[in-house]
Amino acid sequence: MIRKFSAGLAVIALVCAASTAGAQDPNYVCSITSGSAAPGGSLTIDSVVSNPTADLEGWSYGVCSGPEVTAISVDSDIDLTSAGDLLSEDGFINTAVFPGGWTQGVVVCLTGCAVIPSGSTFTMARTTYDIPGGTAPGLYPLDYCETLGVPPVAFVVVVGGASIAPTATGGSIEVLDIPDPAFTYIAPNADGGNYPSTGGLSGSTTVNFAVAETDNSGLGATFPNQTQGLSLAVSNDPAIVTPVAVTPAGALAALNGGDGPDFFTVGLFADAWSVGIVYVLTGGETVGFSAAGDDAVSVQYDGVAGALAGTVGPTSTPLTWDAGIGVPPVSLVVVVNGASFAAATTDGSITFNGTTTIAFSRGDANGDDQINIADIISILSQLFQGVPIVCSIALDVNDDGVANAADAVYLAAYIFQGGPPPPAPFGTCDTEPTQTPEDCEDAACTP
Fold it and tell me: pTM here?
């Protein structure tokens, strides 16, 4: 069976006794892999031997790492125990870990019963290294060496009972520089909807602004970080929209049992808004943001009355993150563990679509500029008898957004029972602010 030792190097002398090592032999290459980890983390490194020309009977070597990184465990028989034909052989493995590295001595079979066959690349050991907290970022070399142990362990491979100095290829451990938390403020590219080009903008649009955190967990950083507060500010074109309200959204709205943040102060200007947020003044609740981004605040913008009048088609107005809003200016930062981190920004926009709409008279279903029983029949014919509908908004007599039988009943009540008149435009030929071209595709009344 394979004999394993973790202390004492007496038997390693069996590997080294016939040493005639001199210049490195290029036919045998011992290499060390490389890896990376953050301070406080760990990683695994492989020591590999390549023997293309002859069988190997054993080897010995040391791997020096310096005091900055520490080998905490060495799995020395990773390939020996996975090779079924070597598992039961009378072999020997010895490892020892030192403050500046570790050593390994291997005799594949003490009685010469097995070898590592030529033409193979063989993993001699897999070592776990610990990176102490506070280790400075940088590259730390891993090299084969002959300075460890008493007496020092030689760097040789054994072929035909003789020890040969192989060619050495070192590796390294990269200690990563853990980045600070990194956030991005994201403004939306929002659809402000249609407006009648003849009258210009009216009404309001509500859009959400999001926060995303860069996932640097692969570099040893915490993700997601638990944020404690934010400050945000966005400017806009005051000729097109005006911000009128800012409210918490998403996880911020759910803070304090749904009451929102303890501190949420808003600045509203014609050309911008700003907000400062502290989630819980006494500490406790925090919010983590995903890499894709999560909503943080909702902002209502009112269209400036009459803006974009006469403009047909889409018009985009910018939403720009702005660190110059207010006196003193509001910073674009995220708070983590009491420290503020400047956020990167992605600007957005609101796009409004000016449409040309056709005037109509509500209730004038047959388009004859009169309101009478013929319109009741026309409504029912278009809704239930397959007569083409060319101006559905004219059929919506009660202005509930849907053309159906209720509209015929509403119009009948007005004509015959003194019911209320249909909402505007009624008795005149006009458009309404929320109308779209699809609502009325052909002339439905005479101006």
Answer: 0.62
